[in-house]
TrEMBL record:
Residues 1-202 form the CNNM transmembrane domain. This is HlyC/CorC family transporter. The lineage of its organism: Bacteria, Pseudomonadati, Bacteroidota, Chitinophagia, Chitinophagales. Coiled coil: none annotated. One of its GO terms (molecular function) is flavin adenine dinucleotide binding. Residues 222-282, 285-342 form the CBS domain. InterPro entries: CBS_dom, CBS_dom_sf, CNNM, FAD-bd_PCMH-like_sf, FAD-bd_PCMH_sub2, Ion_transp-like_CBS, Transptr-assoc_dom, UPF0053_domain. It is a multi-pass membrane protein. CDD domains: CBS_pair_CorC_HlyC_assoc (cd04590). GO terms for cellular component: plasma membrane. Keywords: CBS domain, Cell membrane, Membrane, Repeat, Transmembrane, Transmembrane helix. The chain crosses the membrane at residues 6-26, 100-120, 140-158.
Length: 440
């Protein structure tokens, strides 16, 4: 009887071993088993990586182990538990007939052995494996490899049969662990933020990296009306005054019109020329202008900047006109956020007024503007800025002082720059609380 009890306990623990092995090798990743992240021996690490890298075969081994242990437990365990219950009844001298004793002992034995099986053979090992996937994998790797070696022919046959069924269903059997998709990584990051594992700044940085891959130059450029540019025909003294006042290190230089940029003036080149040659000929100080289309992806522009050791590009639109400029700083800000230096004195994108209205720079992207508004403005393929949204819905060129009702706001055009809206005053058409009640 003692040996049968020991066998029952062993089968429960054996079932737990294979359940833990199954969940651990599915959850753990090969990168988590690196030598630098573990104090385990190289041999154990190597065995663990082999198991995780050969997922299909070792999952089949765990399934076979669970099945054998469960069958053995059902064969031995119930009889053992029944015998224990019968002995307990006789020990306490319950005045029951043998027929009743047998009728109640069997279901009680079934409930007890099932409870042991579920708790110690399934749930507890599964929870341990999920929470301690790396440690569990290191523990089970060598025994699981030995089990796989012994039952390899049978496992191979079962695996082939299972893969055949998968192919009939149009599913390709996985031979190794698949990588996470971008959406899966984003979900993991989001869940990590909600649980407090990652800080908001870390989450924002990683999300910016994903967005960086698809964003285009037109979304980050400095609009042409905001460019600090130099007219080559200006007197040299005025150019010096302008450069001193603006405080930048590089300036596009144009002739007659901003669409005719003839080069880039580096302040250090100008100072060097003045110091060495006493020359005031700005044309001789210019470096070639680097032109790019506004449809270019910023990740490609970054590579080009790095390759050519460039810091500024002139951006052209689909008609070949100058749309604006983009610098290395603009690209980096897409990853790490705004970079303010001692010369920056930028106007806020959105200024909330005392009466609850919002004064908005209309040439900024809608995504950036929405960060400061109580009711988000919609984005569309036809426009990316508030100015574009207004022009798209207006159908013609707005005028200063004109009022429009768009996307839940009354919009008042405060300032125009030629045919482009520069500043707009936004006022909610109805309080946000009332709008939410109507929607509900």
């Amino acid at each position: 009887m003692t040996s049968e009890i020991i066998l029952t306990i062993f089968l429960v623990l054996l079932n737990g071993f294979f359940v833990a092995a199954e969940f651990a090798i599915v959850k753990v990743r090969v990168t988590q088993l690196s030598d630098t992240n573990s104090k385990a021996s190289p041999k154990l690490l190597s065995a663990s990586k082999q198991v995780v890298g050969n997922l299909d075969n070792y999952l089949a081994a765990t399934q076979l182990g669970v099945t054998l242990a469960s069958l053995g437990l059902g064969w031995v365990g119930e009889d053992v538990m029944t015998e224990i219950i019968l002995r307990a009844i006789h020990l306490f001298h319950f005045n029951l007939s043998m027929e009743i004793i047998h009728k109640i002992s069997v279901p009680i034995a079934f409930i007890l052995i099932t409870t042991l099986h579920i708790v110690f053979g399934e749930l507890a090992p599964k929870s341990i494996a999920i929470r301690k996937a790396v440690n569990t994998t290191l523990v089970i790797a060598m025994p699981l490899k030995a089990f796989f070696f012994i039952f390899r022919p049978f496992i191979w046959l079962l695996n082939k049969m299972a893969n055949g069924v998968l192919r009939l269903l149009g599913i390709n059997p996985a031979q190794e662990q698949e990588s996470h998709t971008e959406e899966e990584i984003k979900l993991i990051i989001s869940e990590s933020g909600e649980s407090g594992v990652m800080e908001d700044s870390e989450i924002e940085l990683i999300q910016n990296v994903f967005d960086f891959d698809v964003r285009r130059v037109r979304e980050i450029l400095v609009h042409r009306k905001e460019i600090s540019a130099i007219d080559i025909k200006q007197p040299f003294t005025k150019i010096i005054d302008y450069v001193t006042q603006e405080g930048y290190s590089r300036y596009p230089v144009y002739e007659d019109d901003l669409n005719n940029v003839i080069g880039i003036l580096y302040v250090k080149d100008m100072l060097q020329s003045l110091h060495l040659n006493k020359s005031e000929d700005v044309r001789k100080m210019l470096r070639p202008a680097f032109y790019i289309p506004d449809s270019m992806k910023i990740k490609d522009l970054l590579k080009t900047f790095q390759k050519d050791h460039n810091q500024m590009a002139i951006v052209t639109d689909e008609y070949g006109d100058i749309a604006g400029i983009v610098t290395m700083e603009d690209i980096l800000e897409e990853l790490v956020g705004d970079i303010q230096d001692e010369h920056d004195a930028e106007l806020p994108i959105v200024e909330k007024q005392a009466d609850g209205t919002f004064s908005v720079l209309a040439h900024q992207s809608i995504d950036d503007i929405n960060e400061f508004l109580p009711l988000a403005l919609p984005t569309d393929d036809h426009y990316s800025t508030l100015s574009g949204l207004i022009t798209y819905h207006h159908g013609s060129v707005p005028v200063e002082g004109e009022r429009l009702e768009l996307e839940g706001y009354e919009m008042i055009i405060l300032k125009m720059y030629r045919s482009s809206v520069e500043r707009v005053l936004l006022k909610l058409l109805e309080p946000l609380e009332e709008k939410e009640k109507e929607e509900n």
